[in-house]
Design brief:
Elements: H1 3-14, E1 18-22, H2 26-37, E2 41-45, H3 49-56, H4 66-75, E3 80-83, H5 89-92, E4 95-98, E5 103-104, E6 107-108, H6 111-120, E7 129-132, H7 140-150, E8 161-164, E9 183-187, H8 190-200, E10 207-209, H9 213-244, H10 248-255, H11 278-285, H12 294-322, E11 330-334, H13 349-359, E12 364-368, H14 381-385, E13 389-392, E14 409-412, E15 423-424, H15 451-457
Parallel strand pairs: 1-2, 1-4, 2-3, 4-7, 7-8, 9-10, 11-12, 11-13, 13-14, 14-15
Antiparallel strand pairs: 5-6, 8-9
Helix pairs in contact: 1-8, 2-4, 6-7, 9-11, 9-12, 12-13
This protein binds nicotinamide-adenine-dinucleotide (NAD).
């Protein structure tokens, strides 16, 4: 066996391999702390000085990740060292993991990856394992990463090793941690794949080895595009429900009793760093192949339309229900992150909604989200509760009970609240289900399942 394979494999097995992580964002910080907790010496690098300062002070800037808040103070400067000097990563690390962004806003870009690779080739990478985790176009590892690293004059797969392992973490999801999410791994040759698999075995319960980096790149995109398309279909159903006086949640509830129906949720839009750009990464992977990728783009178009449709609901309430000018109406925006219990504001629907309201003359907009601490100017809870209309865009657990005594209008962009004359959801219709005073009495109709029963069983965010 190639002695370089033996050497890096042994270091990983004995946990003496030093791990350098380039990019300490949502994914990179998670990965770094996970390896540090398993006894590896981890060296984290990020170009953002504020992040490095924060970490040095033991402060977690991803508050929804309780695991990081708990473990960071224990590992920082003991088994986890941080720096802005990215050029040192490949001098220090036996393993170098790259987890940099692959989009600017919604637009895919490989700029950060190129920068990271340029830093890596400043040092001798003989015998090292370089793993890319960022979500990328199909073929990136072979066509961009390997040629960039071979500029050193060394041969990939022989003198050094290259793996690709897409990330699936879901920050803020308390049920699914990095450890219990199966991790897809791959390598540019069998040796690279095996070393990469051995590396990740240390921090996840299950490693799923696939035959090529192209396959692994495709899998990640496939997962996110499937989700985007399914959500778009549900959003389309919601729009149809509004026209047809049907309640989408009742329809989903009943349809879910069929074994192969998947209950995606309609909402005010899709945000985050991934779901807006990954469909484009997948589509661009097949540029010039003559494929009709209309389905992917149509889904994007529907999901991108949802914030505008949501804002329009609020504007309609101004004219039809409140009778105030838009410029005089107070709009509370509850939730600024792109999803429940997250602090991540990237591409969050709330900001598109705010833009649309402003374009239509709104002058009193009060954004509020206690989970978001990235310097965005926010209103107070009292401003929210004094608003004429609240637009709920993320149903954080911490909002529970907040709206109990609010009696203004709510546009529920999360479909969490029960619709009423004053609560307008996405594709929701307030349907009175009393069948001529016959109540749904278990003793009389024990086997009848209704959405009404489900509603009573699981109130989420209450609204008085
Ligand atoms: N956030 C998620 O939940 C998630 C989940 C799965 C996959 N991903 C993918 O993982 C990748 C990273 O996403 P993220 O959410 O962690 O991004 P992020 O923006 O939170 O973190 C990336 C970090 O990389 C840093 N960076 C940029 N260029 C650098 C360089 N040259 N050297 C060192 N640091 C650099 C940035 O300052 C930032 O802190 C993306 O491709 C994303 O699509 C993200």
């Amino acid at each position: 066996m190639n002695s370089r394979v033996t050497s890096i494999s042994e270091k990983i097995r004995e946990r003496t391999a030093k791990i350098a992580v380039i990019g300490l964002g949502y994914v990179g910080l998670n990965i770094s702390i996970s390896f540090a907790c398993e006894g590896f010496q981890v060296y984290g690098f990020d170009v953002d000085e504020r992040k490095i300062d924060s970490l040095r002070n033991g402060i977690n800037y991803i508050p929804e990740e309780g695991f990081i808040s708990e473990m960071l103070p224990r590992v920082i400067s003991k088994s986890f060292f941080v720096s802005t000097n990215v050029d040192e990563a490949s001098a220090i690390g036996d393993v170098i993991i790259i987890i940099v962004p692959t989009a600017n806003g919604n637009t895919p870009t490989m700029e950060y990856l190129h920068n990271a690779l340029n830093s890596i080739i400043k040092n001798d990478i003989t015998g090292k394992l370089i793993v890319l985790e960022s979500t990328v176009k199909v073929g990136t590892t072979e066509e961009i990463v390997v040629p960039a690293l071979e500029k050193t004059g060394l041969f990939a797969g022989k003198d050094f090793f290259v793996g690709y392992s897409p990330e699936r973490i879901d920050p803020g999801n308390k049920e699914r941690s990095l450890r219990n999410i199966p991790k897809v791994v791959s390598g540019i040759n069998p040796e690279s794949a095996e070393i990469t698999a051995k590396l990740y075995e240390n921090i996840v319960n299950e490693v799923v080895l696939v035959s090529s980096t192209r396959t692994a790149e495709f899998i990640k995109l496939m997962e996110n595009v499937q989700r985007d398309v399914n959500i778009a279909l549900m959003n389309l159903f919601a729009i149809m429900c509004e026209k047809a006086n049907i309640d989408i949640e009742e329809a989903i509830f009943a349809a879910s009793t069929k074994w192969n129906f998947h209950p995606y949720k309609a909402s005010c839009g899709v945000g985050g760093h991934c779901l807006k750009k990954d469909p484009l990464l997948l589509a661009h992977s097949f540029d010039g192949e003559g494929l009709d990728l209309g389905l992917i783009y149509a889904a994007r178009k529907i999901n991108d339309l949802m914030p505008t449709l949501t804002a329009e609901k609020a504007l309609l309430i101004c004219s039809d229900k409140i009778g105030k000018n838009v410029s005089e109406t107070k709009f509370g925006i509850l939730g600024l992150s792109y999803k429940k219990n997250s602090s991540d504001t990237r591409n969050a629907p709330a900001f598109y909604i705010i833009d649309h309201l402003k374009k239509n003359g709104a002058q009193h907009i009060y954004p509020y989200d206690p989970l978001v601490k990235n310097g965005i100017i926010q209103a107070k809870v009292s401003d929210i509760l004094n608003s004429d209309i609240i637009i709920l865009t993320a149903a954080h657990d911490c909002f529970s009970g907040l709206l109990d005594n609010y009696d203004g209008y709510i546009v529920d962009g999360t479909n969490t609240l029960e619709p009423s004359d004053k609560v307008i959801g996405i594709g929701r219709n307030h349907i009175d289900m009393k069948f001529k005073d016959k109540s749904f009495d278990d003793s009389v109709l024990p086997k009848i399942l209704t959405y009404q029963k489900k509603k009573l069983a699981s109130p989420k965010i209450n609204h008085g």
